[in-house]
Amino acid sequence: MSSSDQINPAFSYQRLAGAALGGMCGDALGMPVEGWQSQEISRRYGRLDSMQAGRLPAGSYTDDSQMMIAILKTLADQGRLDGPHLSQEFLRTFEPRRGYGTRIFGVMQRLAAGAAWDGAGTDSLGNGGAMRVGVLGAYYADDLEACQRAAYDQCRITHQHPQGLAGAVAQSLAVGMACRMGASGEIPAPHDFLSEIAGRVEAMDAHTAARLKAMPSLPRGDEAAARQALTQAYACDVTAAEAVPPALGAFLAAENAEQAIVLAVSLGGDTDTIGAMAGALAGAYWGLDALPAAWLNGLENGDQGRDYVLSLCPRAISVKSG
Ligand SMILES: [Mg+2]
Prior knowledge:
It contains 18 helices and no strands. By secondary structure, the chain is an all-alpha fold. The chain is globular. The chain starts with a helix and ends with a helix. The site of magnesium ion has 6 residues, from helix 4 and helix 16.
């Protein structure tokens, strides 16, 4: 069996684990420079392509991956996106030191006080629903309607503004489509890829659709040109509408997984989250084995670390209930 056989079809261990670990790699690579401007990152690190220490040790993941892992745990336990189960997983695994957004603390307090799974969220248009959703895109790659519904429901637990919801759905669909294209060996054409996603989220939020369609042209493989185009077009901040499109852009501009993630982090701003989203896309498209070994080896691997995440993937696949 060739390696390309092993990563087919669209729904597979390689793609689900690729989305999970690719997201963790992007999160950990972006962690030390969260909130920095693009120029500050290149001045300090040059091409930031190795795990560095920041407010957490090198290779540590942040809130983005902690919540992604909660989604994966729900899939492994339930075989589907189960809102009540996931809300309790978010609460059970919550570690403030991972760097959560301020409004999440209120969500957790309401869940702890017994609020319904869909009754604790805020009217946030942040990227928190999108940052963690990659594994769902890979899990439902064979059914984009289910992919969209599951992405929407997991987002509602914390983020209920239409822009937060549309961003989460867009990222999930993008990962699902990346799985399909990776399986068929198709290179995504940026305009077609973004038009398809914009068309699907337009009815939820027209602004998000417009921001996806505002993608500048991206010279494939030219990191410096893509970085300049993406930072001019998007704020790359904590809002879903300004963070999801550049993550998709970094993936679409890249020729391999490493480049997608390095480019995403180099944009500055919400680097861990944009890195996590581009990483999930890259891992889904190119597969787990295409992620740099040095990054995988450098990821934190304690209690809820790399090997634990890898162990959840076959469990989630074996119990999938359609
Ligand atoms: Mg984070």
